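User: I need a structural model of M16 family metallopeptidase from Novosphingobium rhizovicinum for a docking pre-check later this week. Nothing fancy, just the predicted structure tokens so I can convert them on my end. Input:
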Amino acid sequence: MRPSYIAVMHISSRAARSLACLLLLSTASYQPALARDAAVESNAAAQVPWLYRGSDVPPDLEWKFGELSNGLRYAVRKNGVPPGQVSIRIRVDAGSLYETDDERGYAHLLEHLVFRQSKYLQEGTAIATFQRLGAAFGTDTNAETSATQTVYKLDLPNATPSSLDETFKLLSGMVTAPTLSTQNLKADVPIVMAEMRERGGAAQRVQERMQEVFYEGQPLSERSPIGTVKSLQAATQDSVRAFYNRWYRPENVVVIVAGDAEPAQLEAYVKKWFAGWQVPGKPIPAPSFGDPVPPASGQGEAPIGRTEIMVEPDLPPSINYAILRPWRQVDDTIVYNQGLMIDALAQAIINRRLESKARAGGSFLTAQVNQQDVARSADGTFVSVTPLGDDWQAALLDVRGVIADALTRPPTQAEIEREIAELDVAFQVPVEQRRLLPGAKLADDLVNALDIRETVASPEAVLRIFRESKPLFTPAAVLEHTQQLFRGTVTRALFIAQEKGSASSDALRQALVQPVKPDQQVRTAEGPPVSFDTLPAIGEPGQVTSVQNTGLLGIQQLSFANGVKAMLWPVQEEPGRLTVKVRFGGGYREIDPKDAPYITLGQMALVGSGVASLGQNELDQIATGRKMGFNFDVKDAAFEFSAETRPADLADQLYLFAAKLDLPRWDKQPLERAKAAAKIQYATFATSPQGVLNRDLQFYQRGKDPRFQTPTPEQIDRTTPEGFRRVWEKALSSGPIEVQIYGDFEPAQAVAALQRTFGALEPRDPAPVEADTAEIGAPKPTDDAVVLRHHGDADQAAAVISWPTGGGSTALPESRQLEILTQLFTNRLVDAVREKLGVSYAPYVFATWPVDLEAGGSITAMAQLQPDKVPLFFDTADEIAQDLITNPPSEDELTRVVEPLRQQVTRAASSSAFFMQQLEGATTDPSRIASLRTILTDYTQTSPAAMQALAARYLGQEKSWRLAVMPEKATGAEARK
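Assistant: Understood. Predicted structure tokens for M16 family metallopeptidase:
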């Protein structure tokens, strides 16, 4: 069963991986109590819901399940997060594995055609229609196709009876009566082909080759949802209709709705608009997806099959191998889930040991074991290794040594208890935060459960089952399940090498069968647990010198004698959710440009370098069974720590943050590992246009300021532990300090914890910012594009055009009006570029406005496209900009932008996290509090004339700056107008 709710949480990486594997959760020797509970819940229902037939998992009674006479199934439930929103998912049980050889790509092509035109939507009007209903395209309205399903998604904000009725009507027409015409095929096939091109490059090649190698002999080996050029170009309205008629049937469709409406009302809409859907003929069974094919010869419990070397010079070397077993549909019972739970514990223990070995300076940077059921085609155990250096055999040998130890000796009970504690808090948090559960997440969880043919359970049932299962979590049981995870029909492997000849298929095969000595050194050492009680105090508790009401939502501002300021907002409506942010120092502005490489390394290694007497492993250990985090970010004018935590853990979370500022530790190994990772990653940026933009766009947009440059391997090599400490010791000791605590907490306890931690710090001066580094630059307008190169496919390019705007908090209302202008630009660009240039949904426009700086903002438009279309993209963007300057938008065009923005802001404002972000820095800049009061009107009250004036102020060809990312074989002239 899938938990009905998995919170977004910051837990250790090992627990996160365990949780990912354990999304299908259940119990152990739970039988008597659970059987009684299941019986009571079953008797409370009129009948066993269709999802739970054949299962003894307790149904989540908040879902109301039903079936129509035509075979369509549905599930609806009331949910008020965010208020007013209703999330609709229509799942079709058909993906790329349902296609014949001649139909490859049809499932995904249909996804596009369904949006193009249908019974109640004229050609090309879907986006505009849903925008008028308040749903933003790409976020609130979307769809996805996988190997096994196609899902249509809509999050309808401000749902009313009339808008819900209209939405169900439109969606029903899309799914039950799309217009699959030749004309629409001619419009959509080029867009799908563009999507195929944009997804290309080294990473896509690796994914396709891995699929081909791992699933050799099965349809999955050659069935990518994007399809093939040949099959897509040969598509006709008759062939596409044949695929549609075969799989788009009521029996294959499930409608899932969760939102702020009564279940009976939602059920009525489903019946009204889908009950009349009738199709001729009997349903066709799903095709066979096949089983992993054993090798013709081989020995052992998972004999070695295909091993292959793939050369990709710009990707880091990596070894991936899979132990594959046949996938079989199971009855999602408690006993079945007991095994999954022990599997997850087994993987978590191995992964913790692998991480410990990597941290200690092993021969590999990262390694991981992960069990997955893949596309109902294989049950696989996957091992991935990123070697350090050229000796990949040593890296693989070291990883296999850790696994061999897990296969030959049971773990200690202490190791098991540590992973149990991690999982316990992971399942307790959803219970505490149940009232905060978004309806969209609930609907998506049910979609995923249907895809893997399993059930869902309430957070309370999951936690209860897990806790009553603990007697089963014994060393012997974990050893047995570890051994099962590494048995299979066949083992296959793919090695991504950077140089031809650095490895061979035979050498890889030999490395996998070579006898290996179990590595016992990485087992978790037993000893007294690390405790916060043993850590040194920050100092004498500080005094609160003032308490001020901000006049906004009950938020209070505290000042301490040492200059630290805090903003506190206890929110009873968010039980179990608590967020802490700490801003300090001067951010990018504080760092000397000569020290720029240390910015990247700090973001990767500063937290891991330790706190007080705690190294990286001790930090993990002290957080075991707790909900604590330690995120670090560098912003324009401040550094920031942040974490999601719980009321019970708030005091210790504050201690960790304060101790990092006052008692930093400087372990060298996290820095050396970060340097290795940064160097390995650097080459990967050049594999695609998007990678180059990720590497360089901010650098160019900030006037080639070295602090925004992705450091090269040569620059990384020149860094030292002494330099790292010099830069970050200075940053950690600088002020001012602002602490934000928002969510579920007791104010008196929070203040006391602040006094013992941040209030106890020594007073500190504001961050020293040199005059010549205080301002962050911007590029000068130019007609000629900056041309960068990528090493990827020759038919891929990217184009960027940007107009400078402004910055600072005093002009925040104007920055919000610019967001309206940006959305107007986006709508026009999507329409123009998709039709003119044949690109997919990639074109987009975004605005930035640095609140902490007086300049540096921009409006930026970009798209991925073919190299020869780059000049046309620039021309199109210029035309749109000029038209916005010359002609005001229509009232309807403005409504299509403003209404989705209104709904986005309204929904976001239902969470304290929204206000927390808006008020960052408000303790030193009170104007941010005042500007928050006008945020909704700033985003929604405007006029066509106001937009025209704003466009005239900021847009225009003479004000723009542009950049093109071209393949190496192209010439610079191709990017120029």
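Before docking, keep this in mind: The chain has four domains: 71-274, 304-513, 544-768, 778-975.
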